[in-house]
Amino acid sequence: QVRLVESGGGSVQSGGSMRLSCVVSGHTHSSYYMGWFRRAPGKEREGVSCINWSGSSTYYIDSVKGRFTISRDNTTNTLYLQMNSLKPEDTAMYYCVSDSGSGGSTRLCSRTDAGFGYWGRGTQVTVSS
């Protein structure tokens, strides 16, 4: 059974930093594209950042470029999202996603359909002004 478990969320003031982690079990981590999606109250889900299996290809949504860094450790089956200079508009539930069929980190993050890949239950990030 595939499981993705996120951790590292919480509350922080504007300008602060936070690191999210996602531990994957139940599949060969290194062969999957992975990413972080988020959903804020009243807004559509969006792909924040995605990465290919080797880490050589990454995607970031424009609003987080230069502030967030995605990385993965295939030896520990862990995905990370380092978030710096956090803003109140980053407040959302953040979900870890693992998918083998999207064909690329950009394509994974651009998906708006439902029912793809494996998802974690999410971790809440709240940024206060």
Please name the defining characteristics of this protein.
four-stranded antiparallel beta sheet, mainly beta, single chain, 129 residues, seven-stranded mixed beta sheet
Q: In brief, what are we looking at here?
A:
The chain has 129 residues and is mainly beta. The chain is built from 1 helix and 11 strands.
Explain what the structure shows.
A hairpin with a 6-residue loop joins strand 4 and strand 5. The model has no long low-confidence stretch (mean pLDDT 94). 5% of the residues lie in helices and 47% in strands. The longest helix has 6 residues. The chain has 129 residues and is mainly β.
- Total number of strands: 11
How much of the sequence lies in strands comes to over 45%
Helix residue percentage:
under 10%
Structural class: mainly beta
N- and C-termini, Cα separation:
40 Å
Largest sheet descriptor: 7 strands, mixed
Rg over alpha carbons: 13 Å
User: Total number of helical segments?
Assistant: 1
- Mean pLDDT over all positions: 94
Q: Unreliable stretches, pLDDT < 50, 5 or more residues? A: none
| SSE succession | EEEEEEEEEHEE
Shape: globular
Topology, pairings included?
Layout: E1 3-7, E2 10-13, E3 18-25, E4 33-39, E5 46-51, E6 58-60, E7 68-73, E8 78-83, E9 92-99, H1 105-110, E10 118-119, E11 123-128
Parallel strand pairs: 2-11
Antiparallel strand pairs: 1-3, 3-8, 4-5, 4-9, 5-6, 7-8, 9-10, 9-11
